[in-house]
Amino acid sequence: MIDEFIGPSALASGQALIRVLDEKPCFVSMLGEIGKTLKRLTSGRATSAEQYLLQMLLDLWSRSGQDKLIRESAYSDAEKNTKIVRSPSFTLLGESTPGAFFEGLDASHIEDGLIPRFSVLEYAGDRPPSNPNAGCPPPPDLVNQIGTLASITLRMQQDGTFMRVPMSSAAKVMLDAFDREVDETIRGSLNEVHRQAWNRAHLYALKLATLAAVFDAPHDAKVSRDHAEWAICLVRRSVSTILRRFERGEVGGSSQSKAEAAICRKVVEFIALTPEQRAAPRYGIGHSFRRGNFIPRNYFNKRLRDVQPFTGDGSALGRALAELVKADVLRLLDKHMAFKEFKTTGEVYTLGPNWK
Predict the structure, then answer these.
(1) How far apart are CA 337 and CA 74, in angstroms?
(2) CB 330 within 8 A of CB 351
(3) What is the pTM for the complete model shown?
(4) I need a surface site. Which of 198, 272, 298, 334 has the fewest CB within 10 A?
């Protein structure tokens, strides 16, 4: 009966998802190449069915509590109508290459809460050796643990009962501290992407810590300090993965738009540096550029050489800078003025009239 917790491997529409939830309100769907699915759902060409599916993915995240529900919907075509679903618990597990996952996304998908609803785990290491144990049966203890958990869950589902999971005092102290930390991070950030990326972090940590506690002791679950610490670390890693991709300009849009966005971020970074920080050898900033908003081309060369889409394309930086100058976002100083003021024969940039 554990198969009752396995959902469809493809989701055609929001209505179809609700119908499955009506039959079995607790299940996990495993999607291969989830990046392609998200790209389709977030595209400007998404069908009404795909748009409604995206809406459901957003809405279901906060509907799994004891007194929560998804309201019925009515359509002119009666076959599309859906019923009330009480306490739906839907988990979406997907795998994808990083490029495919982030390609169809942009800042709006953080701001509307889509990406913060995912726990994003990325492996950034080298190719590992083959695993000789691949395909072997899992350890009996793990099988028994999952079987016990499934049995309890099936019984609770049939009885319509719920389990409230308390937390230890040590876990509460840790999770409350993380809540305050998230609040301060959000209040201190002027970047909406950063604010929204952290917005659900504490609630996500509560969800994950509770799930870990239930798995460890399904008959008498209680969130321990270890559960809290594991959950907080997982959430931190997920948020950091998302923000790192945005900071590198590797999310959504064309290569040109990514390049221009990456340059603008480095301009903001440069302006925020103090004269003492600009003097650090790693920046390679000459003495005459340690004050003011005039930026040498060498700074961009150093700070963007290992950032996509500049890696492996020697002319990408020049093209992107030229487009920003053409759009009056940046201004390129005349060569004679650059030499007179800064004693350099290299390019020097400053903010243009359209800089925001």
Answers:
(1) 68
(2) yes
(3) 0.71
(4) 272
User: Where on the phi/psi map is residue 191: left (φ > 0), alpha (ψ -120 to 50), or beta?
Assistant: beta
Residue ranges of the domains in the chain?
1-96, 269-351
Q: Taken in order 3, 6, 10, 15, is the CA torsion positive or negative?
A: positive
Max CA-CA distance within the chain?
82
Q: Which residues contact 183 (CB under 8 A, 6 or more apart)?
A: none
Q: Helix or strand or coil: residue 331?
A: strand
Q: Which helix (H) or strand (E) segment is 93 a member of? A: strand 89-95
CB atoms within 10 A of CB 146: 14
Alpha carbon distance 74, 15 (integer Å) = 10
Ordered DSSP codes for 196-250: HHHHTHHHHHHHHHHHHHHHH-TTS--B-HHHHHHHHHHHHHHHHHHHHHHHTT-
pLDDT, tens digit (0-9, with 9 covering 90-100), for 4-16? 889 998 888 888 8
* Residue 86: strand, helix, or coil: strand
What tokens were used for 123? Answer: 């492996």
Residue pLDDT, tens place only, 81-95: 667 788 888 999 999
